[in-house]
Amino acid sequence: MAVMEKVDMVLLDMGLPDLDGTEVLRKLREWSEMPIIIVSARDQDREKVSALDMGADDYLTKPFSARELLARIRLALRHYYRMAGNGDEEILVNRELKMDKKRHMVFRGENEVHLTKLEYDLLQLFLENQGKVLTYGYILKALYGKNYGFDTQALRALMAGLHRKIEKNTAKPEYIKTEIGIGYRMAEG
Fold it and tell me: Where are the alpha helices (DSSP H) in the chain?
């Protein structure tokens, strides 16, 4: 049905009666980048991480309030429309952070921030996915390729270096927050 109609986003329950929600998610991601928010009674971290790694934009565990659901829908749509309009954007911005992709430079306010290549690639990934949870697996695959494995210790070390360079207080980061057991999320700017 989603193929025949223009759909802005999908709310997908993982517990469908006729088909497994993960299969629906996989099929949707084969042909569309539209936002997909999972709503499910399944609350195991393993299932959440799997759905996010497969391309879900968010995962909401039942029960939840209508207000929270609406806020997450607004966030997913804002992100989607921003990315649809800015796919080739040369300047990425989040509050005081600014990345000039053409000149390969990063600034915090007026000060240039010197990053390693991996730190730069990681920051770009976050700036292009503001407000979205990026799982450990997704980040590792984006930085190192699909055959890298799952060395979260290397990712934590890389994140620590990036935090030191972009955050005013590494104990209370304002840009990139840890989603414990899942990954990281850059606050929307």
Answer: 21-31, 45-53, 66-85, 117-127, 136-144, 152-166
| CA pair distance 168, 91, nearest whole angstrom | 22
Q: How do residues 146-159 score in pLDDT, each as one tens digit?
A: 777 777 888 999 99
This prediction has a pTM of: 0.59
User: Which neighbouring-strand residues pair with 186?
Assistant: 176
Question: What strands, in cross-sheet order, belong to the sheet with 176-179?
Answer: 133-135, 183-186, 176-179
| HEC assignment per residue over 76-104 | HHHHHHHHHHCCCCCEEEECCEEEECCCC
pLDDT tens by residue, 11-43 = 999 888 888 888 899 888 887 888 999 999 888
Residue corresponding to tokens 């972009």:
166
Three-point CA angle 132, 53, 167, nearest 5°: 40
In angstroms, the CA 98 to CA 53 distance is: 27
Three-state DSSP at 67 gives helix
Question: In the chain, which stretches have pLDDT less than 70?
Answer: 1-6, 82-89
Contact 53, 138 (CB under 8 A): yes
Q: Which pLDDT belongs to residue 88?
A: 55
Measured between alpha carbons, how far is 113 from 102 in angstroms, rounded to an integer? Answer: 16
Return the pLDDT at 167: 94
Question: Which of 57, 93, 14 minimizes the C-alpha distance to 185?
Answer: 57
